[in-house]
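Translate sequence into structure tokens.
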Amino acid sequence: MLSRKQTPIFADHQERDTYAWFSQRAWVEIDLGALSHNVQQLVKFLSPCTELMAVVKADAYGHGSVAVAKTALEAGASWLGVATVPEGIQLREDGIKAPILILGATNTPEQIQAIAHWQLQPTLCSPKQALEFSNTLEAINYNSSLPVHIKLDTGMSRLGTNWQQAAEFVQLVQGLPHLDLASIYSHLATADSPDATVMVEQHRRFEEAIAQIKTKGIKIPSLHLANSAATLGDSRLHYDMVRVGLAIYGLYPATHLQNHIKLQPVLQLKARVTQVKTIAAGTGVSYGHHFTATEEMRLAVVGIGYADGVPRHLSNQMQVLIRGQRVPQIGAITMDQIMLDVSAIPDLQEGEIVTLLGEQGKERISADDWANILNTISWEILCGFKHRLPRVAVM
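Result follows.
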């Protein structure tokens, strides 16, 4: 993502398309205005005492972590969530001072020292990890207490200590030098499902673990449990903070959660037509000739392919938008290019803009559309766009 000072801001789509024509064959547009809107709507949706953590791991789900983080904080988020130490360092190097929680596992001395140096906040998942943190900080003569967050496994079966051992784990952490308990949290496995059975059980376990901790006379500074789906679906899961990823990018975790607040998609994927030609009936298209023209047709080549993050399995199944109308993709998607049947647009010119994801006129193609074709999730689609596609921020 371009830095905020360098980010080109354009008045309308025509000017943005003019910029893209001179600069790139394909690119990702990030609408920071839509991002700000989404964060503001989410903050309004929460109770006044609940904070919002903007999850910006994986380069903000492919949107560009620095620009997204700054915009989210300006719009009302108070925390940032990342997966790795380098992701947190990148934000600090760009001058971001907000608290940053590392959601992934960290345990090497090098990671621990970097966390302390850059004032990041780690997740502790086990007694062994807690001891490693304390011992490493002692060895480097760390002259302060590092805020740490304890993660409980209440049914995700991923990171975290077993919820039934929560009280003992918290007591251990509180007794170790250089560690300061900042929060206790867990993660929900099925919050996006209409069937709430598993989520209700995880919530019950979380509550029971917290009750056990409190019986030890331990004061818990903060509790958080909800991801995007739980944030939208059940206010009882909000606690002191919610961790929102997908929703800030304008997509809903599930269709049954779409009526809670109005979100605006942040990302659009665009490319340019690089060649237009006429092919005869019987002509095969692309590798393997998995498409053969049944009649004479106009074919457009577009400068984007699977090396940019357009899944090859979408071949002969996807549509794109040109001049506000849907156009079918034909033949196998190749590493750097796709082909389109543009017979319905006989005057199409090389250099015209193709929208693969996004909106033109009254038509819209979303990451959910691709995910449904591929039997996957929109998260994977967003995270799949490679970095040779520049992120161009627009308002």
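Note: The mean pLDDT is 94.
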